[in-house]
Write a structure and sequence with these properties.
The chain is about 35% helix and about 15% strand. The strands form 4 sheets. Strands 1-9-8-5-4-2-3 form a 7-stranded mixed β-sheet, sandwiched between helices. The chain has a 3-stranded antiparallel β-sheet with strand order 7-6-12, with no helix packed on it. Helix 1 packs antiparallel against helix 8, helix 3 packs parallel to helix 4 and helix 3 packs across helix 7. The two termini are about 35 Å apart.
């Protein structure tokens, strides 16, 4: 029996794009007999470092592991504070907690959804050791201002670039301003099935990161420090290398869809791109001032996938409230009630995008 009231067109919010090339790469690894971290992972690291424009890259199990390992490799631990955004996935805060350090949440700029440098500076204390900017939705942070703050206060920059593969500020890729952390979750701009990457400038920090991900070993069975099993497999790396070759083309497709939306959508607040930014639109995120949840229901009823990233900021999550966080972040808290992400997948057709525009524009009707 046919499902009743099913919309004629379905435009999914996101889906992994895996083709024959990725499948063949995985089969080649399976046939090689070398499945765990090995030569394909090393090749992926070198290719990713070259793409970002840094000398070192360290592959790990996922994006959360990338953040955790990067913090530890920089010596972040108990007694330290790391300033970051509360308007992000929980891993941005949790990775700091994992180290024994304290996350300190600064407020965001309402146009970029990213850290407000003035709020960051207001939260710097003698305990501050690092700034973790989150390049949210593929939109790069103001790295001129944050870089100047880091230099002035002798702070480490650890970039949460988990949604920003290929994004750039002033022509320089994110992940190259400090130590960059990426996720290759299936719905990211590129995937390895699951996995993460740390991009690094400093050889000694890169060495520590490699040891931390591999039980503290540099030499087999010689454990020089406490470490974890956070390695990437060659199976995942094989997918990642293939996806990396397609990243620029797919990002440009996302940017074309975003431009199409930005010239046609009405009645909602549109995302903005700074003149120095190269936004890669992991999400195309609009804002509605009233009845956001009702708008999401209307989009779904019309077959348009929509997501709310993120309805509850990190500092208001139950676990953080239990730890005593009582931050007042008015812009973060307001935007969390207004944002809706709509489809911007690289495989969308122009007809798909036109349909999304028609549905969104009808919200105010």
């Amino acid at each position: 029996m046919a499902q009743e009231n099913k919309p004629a067109r379905q435009v999914a919010l996101s889906k992994p794009l895996i083709g024959d090339e990725e499948k063949q790469a995985v089969l080649k690894v399976l046939d090689s007999g070398m499945i765990a971290q090995g030569p394909v992972t090393e090749a992926f690291e070198k290719a990713f470092a070259a793409e970002v424009g840094v000398p070192h890259a360290v592959a790990v199990a996922n994006g959360t592991a990338a953040l955790h390992v990067a913090l530890l490799a920089h010596g972040i631990g108990p007694g330290h504070e790391v300033i970051t955004s509360s308007f992000s996935f929980i891993a941005s805060g949790n990775s700091i907690v994992f180290t024994g350090a304290k996350p300190v949440f600064a407020d965001i700029d309402e146009h970029s959804f990213n850290l407000d440098p003035a709020s960051v500076e207001a939260h710097i204390t003698p305990k501050t050791r690092a700034i973790m900017p989150v390049h949210l939705f593929g939109n790069p942070c103001d790295m001129d201002a944050l870089g100047a703050l880091a230099k002035k206060h002798n702070l480490v920059i650890i970039e949460d670039a988990c949604q920003a593969h290929g994004a750039a500020w002033g022509g320089k890729q994110v992940g190259s301003f400090g130590s960059g952390c990426y996720s290759f979750y299936p719905t990211k701009n590129m995937t390895s099935g699951e996995g993460g990457m740390i991009t690094l400038q400093d050889a000694s920090v890169a060495k520590r990161a490699r040891m931390i991900r591999n039980h503290g070993m540099q030499e087999r069975y010689k454990h020089e420090m406490i470490g974890f099993n956070l390695r990437m497999t060659d199976l995942h790396a094989a997918i990642g290398i293939t996806q990396l070759r397609k990243l620029k083309e797919r990002n440009e497709a996302r940017r074309r869809h975003a431009k199409y939306y930005s010239t046609r959508l009405k009645g909602v607040v549109l995302p903005q791109e700074h003149a120095k930014a190269h936004h890669v639109f992991h999400q195309y995120t609009i804002r509605v001032a009233h009845q956001r949840d009702e708008a999401v229901k209307k989009l779904g009823a019309a077959g348009v996938g929509a997501g709310i990233y993120y309805p509850r900021p990190i500092h208001q999550q139950p676990f953080y409230l239990e730890m005593g966080f009582r931050d007042s972040l008015p812009i973060t808290e307001r935007l969390a009630q207004e944002v809706i992400s709509i489809p911007v997948r690289p495989d969308m057709t122009e007809d798909d995008a036109a349909y999304v525009v028609d549905v969104v524009n009808a919200l105010g009707a």
